[in-house]
Amino acid sequence: MKYVKELSNKNKIISEHTCESVYEQQNSDYTIKFVFSGAETCEINKRKLSIYPDSFAVLNEGTHYSAKIDSITPVNTLSVSFGKGFITDFHNTFSNNNEFLLDCKESNDRPVFIESLYPFAGDMRFNVLHLKNQIDKGLNDEMLINEYMYHCLLNYYKIYNKEVIQKLDKLSFIKTKTKEEVLKRLTLAKEYISSNYNQNITLENIADHACLSVNHLLRTFKEAYEISPYQFLMQLRLNRAKNLLQTTSYSLNEIVGLVGFECSSSFIRLFKNTFNITPLKYKKSRLN
After folding, report:
1. Non-local CB neighbours of 89 within 8 Å, separated by 6+ positions
2. Which InterPro entries does the record associate with it (predicted)?
3. Whole-number Å distance between alpha carbons of 91 and 126
4. Residue 153 sits in which domain range?
5. Domain count within the chain
6. Is the pTM of this model over 0.85?
7. Which residue of 12, 105, 217, 230 has the lowest C-beta tally within 10 Å?
């Protein structure tokens, strides 16, 4: 099942519910891709990213990418693309003060985003889930859809500030270019962990992928994100286990294996310590 809506201002929404999909294309607009159930694998500039319900991916205009869905159960996805006029006007409004805007000055600058995975939570999640709900009901009101898309961009800029700008400030390097390069490599490390979280990955694997030494990775990762790569991996596994307990009928043992734990008892202990409830009690509470 596929829903495609292109607005008069060239903004576009594509909602899809499928078990199998493969496509490769040149991205003509800025696009944000979401997954509500299952996973979608994207290859962007030779980097493989797996998008799960706790993350979203951002693609710049002109990016060549491929995407693949291969699942036993249907994967529910949504992509929102922004026309050049809409995103240029938004970036101009967001980046300049009121005096500049009231003088009717214009800038043709368009943003260049860091193409990566970002956390799908908070206001962004609230807004996009509302948009998805409206689309599922057959929404055709362009004014309302554009308002949702405006808030989608607004929330992304806030997330970008938190995940990029604030993280740059935390890195203890003097030169801005050095900070930017280190954060770029740390972003690769996070992508690798997020896309391979259920595999037996090592610090050496992560460091090699990010082109950092192990000790450099450990120091700078902790500086930027205030947790270690191992702690980030454990948080990811537990949160994705929580999602599977909430949305699927998999048994506990199946979920333990799916999220990369080797021992059920250690998973149960970590889950209870983190969420103050056992996995089975959590599953029952969500069912009720």
Report:
1. none
2. Homeodomain-like_sf (IPR009057), HTH_AraC (IPR018060)
3. 22
4. 2-167
5. 3
6. yes
7. 105
